[in-house]
């Protein structure tokens, strides 16, 4: 009887040990699942190394973004300065050139919201590569254009040519929220530097070679930018969770309800209206400036490039230095009001310009007002 009780106790002890082992194993499994779940909820963002320039450390992704914005502005202004002279060579009159520029503006306007949605879904690097692929196709077709229909066709791929918007996405994702306006202003500094270099290079290429060669140079720079984006900008810059990424990617780029929701966000519609009111006149001025330089002031390509480079210098100073100083001393609302009055005065003064010297004087407050309002509005919308 005693032997039976002893065996019974051993069996009970073994069963208890087995139960404890199962419970321990179950707890480990649950812990590992919980740990894995916690990992999924952690922000997933590709890390980028810092690089040193003149003894100072900079984020390599930010540097690559600035390089690409510089190349984007350089290539854009190379072809902008060459386009009117190319159209004149092909026998296109200035009225039809206006239609060509209107087509370009409409195509870009239509692609803007879709491009922004694409960036939200697939990230800043994919958006930037798409923008430069669009730019490459535009400049390639322009260089190959030997007739008026091909000129129109060359404008169509520009639907997603929004590299500046892609750069703003990346800088906003990585940068400090408190210094957002200053960071966007520095991005404008890189654009302004490209705006200085681009027209100068474009004018020289047009003078010593041809307008088509200038377009091919812009194409080459845009292809280089695709490579810079692919190798030096991480795939993911947004601080998002895996779950939310899957939910976002399940949506469509053409989700117009989502786009409408973003537009109707508090204050967004007002800011977009202000941007449109300020941007439409400068869009008309920018698209027809080279025509005015050609027809009214009789400027050759290289001198037209000098004027555009002057505008680039002003843009670089205002966006890179002026806005950073203003945002530290004044509120964004005050800057927006000041820039609006500056734009009204400048647009009115343009109607009375009769020579190049007067044009250079009037352009100064115009660039200051436009650059300031663009940065403030971009910062508020991010």
TrEMBL record:
The keyword Cytoplasm does not apply. Pfam families: MFS_1. It is found in: Membrane. The keyword RNA-binding does not apply. Residues 1-33 are annotated as: Disordered. PROSITE patterns: MFS (PS50850). Keywords: Membrane, Transmembrane, Transmembrane helix. Gene3D superfamilies: MFS general substrate transporter like domains (1.20.1250.20). It is a multi-pass membrane protein. The chain crosses the membrane at residues 94-115, 127-145, 183-202, 214-233, 262-285, 305-323, 335-353, 359-381. Residues 61-382 form the Major facilitator superfamily (MFS) profile domain. It comes from the Eukaryota. One of its GO terms (cellular component) is membrane. GO terms for molecular function: transmembrane transporter activity. This is Solute carrier family 22 member 18.
């Amino acid at each position: 009887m005693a032997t039976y009780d002893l065996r019974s106790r051993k069996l009970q002890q073994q069963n208890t040990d087995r139960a404890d082992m199962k419970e321990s194993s179950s707890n480990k499994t649950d812990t590992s699942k919980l740990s894995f779940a916690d990992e999924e909820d952690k922000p997933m963002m590709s890390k980028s190394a810092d690089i040193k320039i003149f003894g100072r450390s900079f984020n390599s992704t930010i540097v690559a973004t600035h390089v690409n914005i510089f190349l984007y502005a350089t290539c854009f202004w190379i072809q902008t300065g060459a386009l009117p002279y190319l159209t004149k060579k092909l026998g296109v009159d200035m009225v039809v050139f206006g239609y060509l520029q209107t087509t370009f503006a409409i195509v870009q306007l239509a692609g803007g919201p879709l491009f922004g949605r694409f960036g939200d879904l697939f990230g800043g690097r994919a958006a930037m590569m798409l923008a430069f692929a669009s730019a490459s196709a535009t400049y390639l077709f322009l260089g190959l254009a030997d007739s008026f229909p091909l000129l129109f066709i060359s404008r169509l791929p520009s639907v997603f040519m929004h590299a500046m918007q892609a750069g703003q996405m990346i800088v906003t994702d990585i940068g400090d929220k408190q210094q957002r306006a200053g960071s966007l202003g520095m991005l404008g500094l890189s654009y302004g530097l490209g705006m200085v270099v681009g027209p100068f290079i474009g004018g020289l290429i047009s003078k010593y070679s041809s307008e088509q060669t200038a377009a091919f140079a812009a194409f080459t720079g845009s292809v280089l930018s695709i490579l810079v984006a692919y190798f030096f900008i991480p795939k993911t810059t947004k601080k998002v969770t895996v779950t939310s990424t899957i939910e976002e990617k399940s949506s469509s780029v053409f989700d117009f309800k989502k786009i409408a929701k973003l537009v109707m966000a508090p204050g967004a519609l007002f800011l977009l209206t202000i941007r449109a009111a300020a941007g439409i006149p400068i869009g008309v001025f920018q698209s027809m400036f080279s025509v005015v330089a050609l027809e009214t002031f009789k400027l050759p390509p290289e001198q037209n490039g000098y004027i555009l480079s002057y505008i680039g210098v002003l843009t670089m100073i205002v966006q890179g230095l002026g806005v950073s100083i203003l945002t530290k001393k004044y509120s964004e609302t005050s800057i927006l009001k000041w820039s609006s009055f500056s734009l009204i005065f400048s647009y009115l003064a343009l109607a009375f310009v009769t020579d190049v010297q007067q044009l250079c004087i009037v352009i100064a407050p115009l660039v200051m007002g436009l650059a300031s309002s663009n940065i403030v509005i971009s910062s508020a919308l991010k």
